[in-house]
Design goal:
Blueprint (H helix, E strand, L loop, with lengths): L2 H11 L13 H7 L9
């Protein structure tokens, strides 16, 4: 995991950024760091 991906994931979870702000080359890695909302819907 890259430090930049971790920073993007943290900012997304805090509501400061969205996945659309993440560079295309890093989206898959950042998405893997963010808990899926589907997992919380039970």
């Amino acid at each position: 995991m890259s430090a930049i991906a971790s920073v993007y994931a943290s900012l997304i979870l805090k509501g400061k950024k969205t996945i659309d702000d993440v560079p295309e080359t890093m989206k898959e890695e950042v998405e893997s760091l963010i808990p899926s909302s589907d997992e919380n819907e039970e």
